[in-house]
Every structure is written in structure tokens, then in C-alpha cells.
Please model this.
Amino acid sequence: MTKEERYEQLTAQIKSLIEGETDAVSVMANVAAAIQQEMGFFWTGFYLDKGDCLHLGPFQGPVACMRIAYGRGVCGAAFEQRQTIIVPDVEQFPGHIACSSLSQSEIVVPIFNDDGEPRGVLDIDSRELSTFDTTDKHYLEQICTLLGRI
Ligand code: SME
Model:
């Protein structure tokens, strides 16, 4: 299967998983599991805005840092800039927060509420360099749009 085909399958699965669901934590927990299962990344999870900083939300993978200040690391930067950030090599990203030395590249996608305000981010890490491209960005942004409605 190509990456596009895997993402098409994943998106369909996520649409049916979240159909009629209203609890954000339950939905994010299953979405993290579905992405991780389908795509085989190293770490997939959410950081959510709680008013003081971004707090660790539902995730799949090794334990991770629990709080990220606005503007800090890739997650804080994507949240503050309100745009997806792709990092081909985490060593080259100034201020990258290394939760695991095994993570080498990552993508962070903001999640917006109905008012267009960011409420958190989806953070995905890979053990390999340069894992993420515009295909990942396209599909993951689509998934985050679905999540923003819950
Ligand atoms: N890499 C992130 C920190 C979170 S962990 O990777 C799970 C960052 O710099 O924002």
C-alpha cells in the first residue's frame, strides 16, 4: 500500500470511530491509537491548551514530557504560529524538546475550535530522519479538522 492509500484507510476509520462521539479525550485516545497502528510511527499524541501551557493528552508510545510552554519546542511553536510544522531533523530545530533520544523527525499539526482558535496540537515523532512530507501534512490536517468539531 502507498502512504496515500494507508492515510485514506486511516481517515475512513477515524471518521467512523468518531461518528456520534462527543467526549474529546475518548476520541483523541482512539485517534492516537488508530494513527499509531496504521502508520507505525514512534510516538503519536496530543498536547492540549489548558490556559497556562500545553498539557500532555491522550497518546501512544513511550512516556513524554507533560507540559510544554507556549512557543517552546515544535509543539509550542506550531500552536503559537497556528500552522503545521514539519521537522526533518530534530537536532536542527532550535529549542526542540527531546522527550526521547530515539525521535529523529516530527510533524506537529494544530487543532482549531469552531471559532478558529487553536486548542492544542497533534504531535507525531519518527525514529527515522525526514519521515514527514506534504502528504502527511495534508491527511493529518484533515484528521485534525475532524477533531476540532468535537
Ligand atoms: N518534540 C516535541 C516535544 C514532545 S515529544 O516529542 C512527545 C517538541 O519539541 O515540541
Observations:
- The first strand starts at residue 43 and ends at 49.
- The longest helix spans residues 3-18.
- The pocket of methionine sulfoxide is lined by residues 43, 64-65, 68, 73-75, 96-97, 99, 103, 106, 123, 125 (CB under 6 Å).
